Amino acid sequence: MGELMLFSRRIADTQGPYLSTADDHKPDRVTKLVRNVPGRYHQRLTYSGNAGNTKKVSDSSLVSVVIPTRNRLAYLQQAIESARAQNVEMELLVVDDASDAEVAQAIPPLLKPGERLLRCNEARGGAAARNVGLHQARGELVAFLDDDDIWLPGKLAAQMECMKRAGDNIVAVYCGYHYLQQETGKKFPAPPPRYRGNVHRVCLEHCITPTSTMLARRKALIDAGGFDECLPAGQDWDFWIRLSRLGDFDFVDQDLVSLRVHGVQISGNLHRYIQARRRIIDKYAAEIQNDLALQACHFHRLGVLYMLAGDSKRGRQLLSAACRHQLRLRYFTHLAVSLCPPLYRWLVSRFGMFRAGDTVFFH
């Protein structure tokens, strides 16, 4: 682990755009939802629809659906319709992260009576918008739906049934999903759900599922501290690490979410993925430092990211470190192919997953 931290500091000295500053890792900069969100957002939130009643009494019959959005009106309408198609008792909360005036004016007509619109007066990003919705949620269960994703009918009902069967120790249930290419309408498969029970060790390695697949207990989400608003990407991965400390996960082995792929997603920004992974490594260093296999995994995935970003020298250094920490054919294969960077980038992008960033960051 010392080698990983040393390499992190060494690159930080020379690669400002890629890496975070030391201040970004301070615990007091991570949003603690229970204490900080009411004070931070009280002066800059406005409410529409039925949001005047902000009682915090949990309703066990409700699922609170939180949809963060910013300047994506056409996608938002489809997301809202897919949430309404769920055959469960639910409340819908749309959190507008300071959309442009023209878009902001067009959102209220999309909502029906009883559906709630929360508006932030300044843009803080998707993590902050989700935290606002989580704080305002009244249901015992909460599900997050990104404004460019779509739920298939029966998604929430299947997850609620799974949670009911699994028992009180389950804090979250996720499901399968696929990618939907915006331009062509083609669907691409995603890795099926694999992990249930105590998934904390797996979550320290990688993100097991994207945000729009998850249904979780509101109390556990709040106790875990909400989404980290300081991370440039991977906020869901970071959140699952903390949430998995509080109880078990389960999954519904059905493909119930469409994740839209289009040109403006953060998923394509490899530099942000590098920043995020390095910050998460630093954040959970105490848990990673005594596990050589975890260290090897992070070396490997960072190495792949640097290779894809065009920094072949650093990429090979990290891939080599992964091989030194754990003898795995996959690691040695990546190291060998990395000697030809154009071939390496083509192979990973072509045969890894439709979105190369997700190949190495999330899975």
What do these coordinates show?
By secondary structure, this protein is an alpha/beta fold. The chain folds into two domains: 2-22 and 267-361, no CATH class; 31-264, Spore Coat Polysaccharide Biosynthesis Protein SpsA, Chain A, CATH 3.90.550.10. The chain is built from 16 helices and ten strands. The chain has helices at 2-12, 33-41, 73-84, 101-106, 126-136, 155-166, 200-205, 218-223, 235-243, 270-283, 285-288, 292-308, 312-325, 329-337, 341-351, 356-361, and strands at residues 45-49, 59-69, 90-96, 116-120, 139-144, 149-151, 170-181, 187-189, 215-217, 248-261. Strands 1, 2, 3, 4, 5, 6, 7, 8, 9 and 10 form a ten-stranded mixed sheet that branches. Helix 10 packs antiparallel against helix 12. The radius of gyration is 20 Å and the shape is globular. The two termini are 21 Å apart. The model is unreliable at 10-44, 46-57 and 353-363 (pLDDT under 50).
Count of DSSP H/I helices: 16
**In the residues, how many domains can be counted?**
2
CATH superfamily of the largest domain: Spore Coat Polysaccharide Biosynthesis Protein SpsA, Chain A
Average pLDDT reading: 83
**Uncertain runs:** 10-44, 46-57, 353-363
> Could you say which overall geometry the principal axes of the C-alpha atoms support?
globular
